[in-house]
Amino acid sequence: MSDKVQLISKNIPRRFTLKTGIRLFIFCLLFLSTIFSNLTKGIFLSSKTSITTELQLNDISFGLFGSLHSIGELIGSLIIIYFINKIDRKGIIVFSLLLNAALSTAFTFTKDKIVLMICYSFIGFAKITLLTILPLWADQFALNKYKTLFLTLLHFAESFGIGLGYVITFTFGEHKYAQHFL
Q1: Do 23 and 143 contact (CB within 8 A), yes or no?
Q2: Using an 8 Å Cβ cutoff, are 92 and 84 in contact?
Q3: Predicted pLDDT at 13
């Protein structure tokens, strides 16, 4: 066997238990949730022409509009410090995912600039809980051999979600079609 195959086979658990299966299933759900929570950012960034035309924005306005996502992340990162010790982390993750889904749906179907701005900033706010709590979850619950892999994949999922948003936009060609995919 080659060195790579031996290295991989050493890291595969000898016994696959129900507890291991549940952890892997939860990790897969969290991994996919991280990807889908980042689609909006990729779609937004790659749809500049359609968005500026539909909303009648100039380049500066589009830049400010795009920064609302980061402002939401900034505010969320300051607030999550308080909630992470006060509320059950599972509850925070579920609330964050539901909030992200509701805001993404509202962002998809509204044409009102104010509602779009509020939704986009709160999407960033909701996403920060995933970026903060999921690495903690991986560190606490992942099998010891897989902690680094779990953390790496969670960070990969963010960039992959943004990139997938670009691909969706280019596949469907128009901002409004890409949004309806979500």
Answers
A1: yes
A2: yes
A3: 52
Q: Please count the other Cβ atoms lying within 10 Å of the Cβ belonging to residue 96.
A: 24
Provide block-wise average pLDDT over 10 residues at a time, the chain (182 residues). 52 61 85 86 82 86 89 89 80 86 86 88 87 82 82 90 87 57 49
What is the pLDDT, as a whole number, of residue 88? 81
Which own/partner contact pairs does 55-62 have at CB distance under 8 Å and 24+ positions apart?
A: 55/113, 55/116
Q: State pLDDT tens for residues 60-90.
A: 888 888 899 889 989 988 888 887 778 887 8
2 dihedral zone (left: phi>0; alpha: psi -120 to 50; beta): beta
- ∠111-114-120 over CA atoms, to 5°? 85
Half-sphere exposure of 103 (CA within 13 A, CB side): 27
Cβ-contact 47, 169 below 8 angstroms: yes
From the list 113, 125, 150, the residue with the least C-alpha distance to 31 is 150
d(CA 109, CA 177) in angstroms, rounded, equals 11
Amino acid letter for position 167:
V
How many residues belong to the chain?
Answer: 182
